[in-house]
Write a structure and sequence with these properties.
- The chain has 273 residues and is mainly β.
- The chain has 2 domains: 175 residues, Sandwich (Immunoglobulin-like); 89 residues, Sandwich (Immunoglobulin-like).
- Strands 4, 5, 7, 10 and 11 form a 5-stranded antiparallel sheet that branches. Strands 1-3-8-6 form a 4-stranded antiparallel sheet, with no helix packed on it.
- It is elongated, with a radius of gyration of 21 Å.
């Protein structure tokens, strides 16, 4: 037993540096848990659609907690963190304390403005649990303990979603795909000095930016559940541009401002008081 605890503590120490990206303020998001009976994550990684670079992600991953571990009955399991999510996204569970009883169903909600490089990402799922005489320490890697792996794929606009590489994925946290020829990097390079004033705001805010191109763009406000709450079409001119965003009947909270054209998008966080 002493050897087990020493090994688990070593694993936790190695893993703790890899966690990240919890969605602050979404701990109590109400998403209906699944009805699975087999321990693990659902749907399978290869059934989860590819996320598109430069667009909002709103994916729900269902899971069923283990009922036993090493012959002991699981009393509780807590998700401490999920790391290696594509840049711009974060995670939340359907329970504020991220804790589940043995065999209990739950959800992991991944969302945000995906600005990650195209590729296959292996999630780092870190947990602690109590199962009879065994207690897993905080930030234990679920892959090492339970052989639990889950992958998220990111592609470019109009790209085919590649097949999942589960062979190389076992040892690689990231497997690169081809770069996007006309993606979010191009838009980010075309737009500069993006500013929202005031931020936070109560009624209206002015968005200013410089552009190296001309053409039709769309300005959107997206809430933290990934829903588009306001949309405005604008004609962007070369040089300095300004557009006003209005609160209207929106609730107080955090939103993502997105300025996009047909090639990609650039985003900023805004707060309504």
């Amino acid at each position: 037993m002493k050897k087990i605890f020493t090994t688990l503590a070593l694993i936790a120490g190695i893993s703790i540096g890899a966690f990240a990206q919890h969605c602050v303020g979404l701990d109590s998001v109400l998403i209906t848990p699944g009805t699975g009976t087999v321990a693990g994550l659902h749907p399978s990684s290869d059934s989860l659609p590819c996320a598109v670079r430069g667009t909002m992600v709103s994916d729900t991953i269902y899971f069923t907690n283990f009922t036993s571990f090493s012959g002991f009955t699981v009393q509780s399991l807590t998700i401490d963190s999920i790391g290696n999510l594509p840049a711009g996204t974060c995670w939340a569970s359907n329970k504020k304390n991220n804790t589940y009883a043995g065999g209990e169903n739950g959800t992991i909600y991944v969302h945000g403005m995906n600005v990650a490089a195209p590729g296959q990402y292996k999630l780092g799922i870190f947990i602690h649990a109590t199962a009879g005489a065994i207690t897993l320490p905080p930030y234990t890697n679920a892959e090492t303990i339970a052989n639990l792996r889950y992958y998220v794929r990111v592609t470019c606009h109009d790209s085919i979603c590649p097949a999942l590489d589960t062979v190389n994925g076992k040892t690689h946290m990231y497997i690169a795909y081809a770069t996007c020829p006309n993606g979010i990097n191009e838009v980010a390079n075309d737009l500069s000095n993006v500013s929202v004033v005031p931020n936070p705001f109560t009624k209206t805010a002015n968005v200013t930016f410089n552009s190296e191109v001309e053409g039709a763009f769309t300005v959107k406000l997206v809430n933290l559940l990934g829903a588009v709450v306001t949309t405005k079409e604008i004609n962007v001119m070369h040089g300095s541009n300004e557009v006003t965003i209005e609160r209207n009947s929106l609730s107080s909270g955090i939103y993502i401002l997105t300025i996009a054209n047909g090639s990609g998008a650039i985003s900023r966080k805004v707060v309504i008081e």
